[in-house]
Every structure is written in C-alpha cells, then in structure tokens.
C-alpha cells in the first residue's frame, strides 16, 4: 500500500503497545497535572481564562503535539537505524531489549525504583507563551525535558523500534506513541472544562494505572526475551483476519 511493508502482522502488536504507552504517558503523575497550566501558558491566558473560553487552546495544543512528535520521530528513526546496523545480532538485541523492558515494568510495579525515572530535566523555553512558535518550541522542550520522567514507557517503545531493522516501521512506531500521548492532549484542549474535571477524577487512580502498565511491560519484555512476539502477531491475524489486508 505504501511502497514498503509498513503495516504487517509483526507491526500490529507493537503498535498497540505503543499506543497504550502513549496514553499512559499522558496519564502519568508527571504529565497529567501540568496539562491545564501548559495549555494556559501556550494560549497566553490563565486557566480561568481557558474555562471562560477567552481563547481557544486548540491551535497551540496542535503545535505543541507537532513539536513533541518531531522529537519522537527522530528518536524512532535513530533507534531503528541502530537496530539495522546490528541486524546480525537481532535475536540478542531483542533479548537485551526484553530484559530492559522487564526492568522498567518492575519500576512501575514499585518492586524497586530507578531514581532517574522519577525526575524530569525541564528545559527553559523563554517567554514564548501565546504564540504558535512558542507552543512548538515548548513541545520540543517537553519531549526532551520530560524524557527521564516518561522514560520507562518511551524506552520500551524505542526498544521495540530497535529490534525492527526497518527504519520506516521503527519511525512509525514512535509516531503511534506520539499519537497516544498527543491525542488526549488535543482532546483536553477541545473540551477543556470537561477535561479538567476528568483529570481530577483520574488522579486518585494513578497508582493503579501505573501497576497495570507495569504488568503489560513485563509481558512484552518476556515475549521479547523468549521470541514470542511473533506468536502474538499470529494470534491477532487469526482473531482479526481483516488485518491481513493491511499493508
């Protein structure tokens, strides 16, 4: 369809994990609480101004998502290119990536904590509030500055990209992750009043969300270590035959 085998049985389970990881990244304790202040800053009005509809936050949110997506796409291309260089060692690369993903899952389950994953390296963007360029720059800064915070999830997707020798699919995998993180951000900008209320209701359940994602990461890691990702692909094809027509 696209001139390359972008969408195939092997890509679909990895893409599903990437999408879920993006959504959970948005729901993480270091991202969800800063969404309303970020939207207010990018539009040049306060949170109360957003609630009152003084200015739409959608254009700024779109530029912000484009900014963070730019960084994630570059990361995906770099990771998959790295994997292609070590094509002869793909099996071992997948096993190493699997172990790393399991460690990140245990971090989410609070079996132990990785200190660098619990803090963010925030970057200053200057007085850029209220402009499209400022929102884009803030998106770039967010992707770089919050990488330690969302590291367990982002690292998992980068590991999956590295185990795929196809640079196009690896980049697409990070694009799916960016969608999972960016779409909730855009929806929050569109439905700001409802979003703030929903965020307040979600906050008490963040620990449970982390634990669920931890279990998912460990499952993905075990499949990478054992080479069973292909089995999941075959199961998806048998369960959803329409997937065979994609790509």
From TrEMBL:
Entry coiled-coil feature ranges: none
GO biological process: cytochrome complex assembly
Subcellular location as annotated: Membrane
Cellular component aspect of the GO annotation: membrane
Keyword Heme: no
Top-level taxonomic group: Bacteria
Keyword annotations: Cytochrome c-type biogenesis, Membrane, Transmembrane, Transmembrane helix
Keyword Lipid metabolism tagged: no
Name of the protein in its database record: Cytochrome C biogenesis protein
């Amino acid at each position: 369809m696209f001139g390359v085998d972008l969408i195939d049985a092997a890509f679909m389970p990895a893409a599903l994990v990437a999408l879920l990881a993006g959504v959970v990244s948005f729901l993480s304790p270091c991202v969800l609480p800063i969404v309303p202040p970020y939207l207010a800053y990018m539009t040049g009005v306060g949170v109360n101004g957003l609630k009152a509809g003084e200015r739409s936050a959608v254009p700024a949110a779109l530029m912000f998502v484009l900014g963070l997506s730019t960084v994630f796409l570059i990361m995906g291309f770099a990771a998959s290119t790295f994997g292609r260089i070590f094509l002869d060692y793909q099996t071992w690369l997948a096993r190493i990536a699997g172990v790393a993903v399991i460690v990140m899952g245990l971090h989410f389950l609070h079996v132990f904590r990785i200190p660098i994953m619990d803090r963010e390296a925030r970057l200053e963007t200057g007085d850029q509030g209220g402009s499209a360029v400022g929102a884009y720059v803030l998106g770039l800064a967010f992707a770089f500055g919050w990488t330690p915070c969302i590291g367990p999830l982002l690292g998992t997707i980068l590991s999956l990209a590295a185990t795929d020798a196809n640079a196009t699919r690896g980049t697409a995998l990070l694009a799916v992750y960016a969608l999972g993180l960016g779409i909730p951000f855009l929806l929050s900008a569109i439905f700001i009043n409802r979003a703030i209320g929903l965020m307040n209701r979600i906050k008490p359940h963040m620990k449970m969300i982390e634990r669920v994602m931890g279990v998912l990461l460990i499952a993905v890691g075990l499949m990478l270590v054992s080479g069973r990702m292909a089995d999941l692909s075959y199961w998806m094809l048998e369960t959803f035959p329409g997937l065979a027509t994609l790509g």
